[in-house]
Amino acid sequence: QKEVEQNSGPLSVPEGAIASLNCTYSDRVSQSFFWYRQYSGKSPELIMSIYSNGDKEDGRFTAQLNKASQYVSLLIRDSQPSDSATYLCAAQYSSASKIIFGSGTRLSIRP
Amino acid sequence: EAGVTQFPSHSVIEKGQTVTLRCDPISGHDNLYWYRRVMGKEIKFLLHFVKESKQDESGMPNNRFLAERTGGTYSTLKVQPAELEDSGVYFCASSQGSGYIAEAFFGQGTRLTVV
CB distance B109–A51 less than 8 Å? Predict the structure, then answer.
């Protein structure tokens, strides 16, 4: 079993709708979680970080963490074509440990 | 403030040659990570420095890969001798050492092609 799992997609969402990206992790000791956005041929760009159960909002983005279910999600409201990219979920045990990435979900926002 | 910088951005070498990749982390960041993405695959962890010390090198593929971090500043990743399967994009990331959560920021990557 992979440590961080994501559906590879592609996930197609109409412009203006809410895109919902999901991620599960296998290691219960993971404490911090991250969402990165990666455009084709570019490096991963940090969007959100979360370590407490519940929701964390930043602009159009909301990260949700449920440690009991070992589940992390990212919601993108009012989706724009520029949101089309691969979204990477990542988990970390502590601030001084390695970060493990999922394989990413390809998101496509259709006009 | 400068972000994480990597050099070179691209490198094409022949099988059996040596290549050295360099990463300059964000100033003040104690954590430095090396990752690799092979075509179509996920980003794989290679190793993690805390300052000048190797905290975790469990992801290093074999002894052809050697990473160093001089004085806890920049880091180099040497591949010697390079093999065809070493081709991919090598990313470096850095984060601060303190705090409950350490957000890591990535460099632009080095695309290595071994022919």
Answer: no
Give the pLDDT means over successive 10-residue stretches in chain B (115 positions).
Answer: 92 98 95 92 93 94 94 94 97 83 92 97
Beta bridge pairs of residue B77: B21, B67
Q: Cβ of B48 and A88 within 8 Å?
A: no
Are B95 and B102 spatial neighbours (Cβ–Cβ below 8 Å)?
yes
Q: What is the pLDDT of residues A68-85, one digit of tens each?
A: 999 999 999 999 999 999
Angstroms from B12 CA to nearest CA on chain A: 17
C-alpha dist (Å) from residue B109 to B7, B58, B92: 8, 21, 7
Question: What's the angle, vertex CA B48, arms to CA B46 and CA B54, rounded to 5?
Answer: 115
Dihedral angle, C-alpha B90, B94, B97, B98, nearest 10 °: -130
The backbone torsions φ and ψ at residue B19, rounded to the nearest 5 degrees and listed phi first, read -135, 140
CB B37 within 8 A of CB B89: yes
